[in-house]
Structures are given as C-alpha cells and as structure tokens.
Fold:
Amino acid sequence: MRAAIRHLAVRVGPREATTAAFRQAAGWFGGEMRRLGYTVTEESFAVPAGDSWGTPVSAGDSVNVIADPPGFDASQPHLVVGAHLDTIAVSPGAEDNATGVAVVRELARLASAYGTRLPVRLVAFGAEEPRGPGDSLHHFGSRHRVAAMSGPERAAVRAMVSLDRVGVRGRTVPVCDGGTSNGRVVRSLVAAAGGIPTSTCEDRASDHWSYEKADVPAARLGSIPYAGYHSADDRSGVVDDRQLRRVATIVWRWMR
Structure:
C-alpha cells in the first residue's frame, strides 16, 4: 500500500480529473488490475469547467477504471468497492485519495488469491473532487457509473463501499453513510471490524452518496481531519500505516 501511495503522490503527483497526469494514474491502476487477473474497462464522461478548491480548471473528459474478476456477471449478486483516483488541482493527494486507491489495490490482490463471499467489482472513480458547490458539481465519475447501470445491475449490487481519505492517524476508523438508508452496510462493516475501533456518522462527501441516492446500499470508510487536506501539503508523511492496515482489514473481512 505504501508503494502505491508513493507512486501516485510522488511519481504522478497532482492528478486533477481532466489532466494527462490523471490519465497516467488511470493507466497505472488498470495495469495493476490486469496483472492480478482482472478484466479492465474504462468508461469516459464529460466534466465541466469549474473551480478546483480555489484553482480554475477547464472542461474535459475523465474516466472510471472498472476491474472485474474472471467470469463476472453484473446482473448477478455482487459487491462494489471503489476509491476516487483524482485530486484537486494543486494537491499530490497522498491521503486524498492515494490511500483509498492503495487499499483497493491491496484488496484486489487478496481477492484474486483467496476469493470472496460474492464477486467484487473494483472501481477507480474519476472526477470525484468538486468543481463548485452542490451535488451537481461533485462526484462526476460515480454519478456517471450509477446512471450507466441497468435496472438488473442496480438490483444486483448488494452493497457499495467507498474508500476515501483512509490513511490519517486516528483513534477510530470512520464508517458512515448518507443518512437516507437503513444503515445495513454500516452495521455490517462495524461488525467486520471486530476489535478495531470504529465510529459512525452521516457523510455525503464521497462516491457512496451517488449509489445511496439511487437506492443502492452504500457506505464510506474514512474522513479524519488533518492539516494538509486539499492542499499541496497532502504528502506521504501524513499517512499512518496503522490506519491503512485497519481499513484494509475491516474491508477484507467484510468482503470475505
């Protein structure tokens, strides 16, 4: 996981959703998934011009990178685990959100080696970061993904989990949803945590919210405040190995 964070935050660096750097990161993620035996597809979508946390950004295209295990059938019961790959314009994004992507990559390795209770579709979302206020200028990749799903596919998603900002040292692992569901996914993740301390909350600031709005059971792990949030100081030094292991352990137990 540390190697993945270094690659994204140091070698690639800031990867705003419509830039060449973002496409480099997307290519890296797709290559990692193919190496582990997954079938990889990309879906492209348009992103408007806007304001990336104080920096004007141009309109353009971004992509979601979707990795499916061998024999995957989206119309059959399955889980979705994802993390956004993009950053705001000025940030190398070690914690936000190389940490989430790094955990997804590790979960992909474990799933390919040991199997899971249901097939798991893994997604690196593009353009999660806001380009202005409100839902209409946020979560572009996951909103596109949900809109592209057929009715049978939506019904087949037993749960979606978003890993977003999961690497800052904290006393607990936040496990949250948008507050409009019955809380089943949050409860199942908390149960999977066992002795790992968790806290729960209402949170709509990640890609799980796109799924929850479409009545797909969903939750988010992560979101502990830190000084370098959405800044050029979001570098590898802010990431805590223990918190990464906690998050990966919880989601792996849940997937198993």
Remarks:
- The mean pLDDT is 98.
- The two ends are 20 Å apart (CA to CA).
- The CA atoms of residues 83 and 163 lie 5 Å apart.
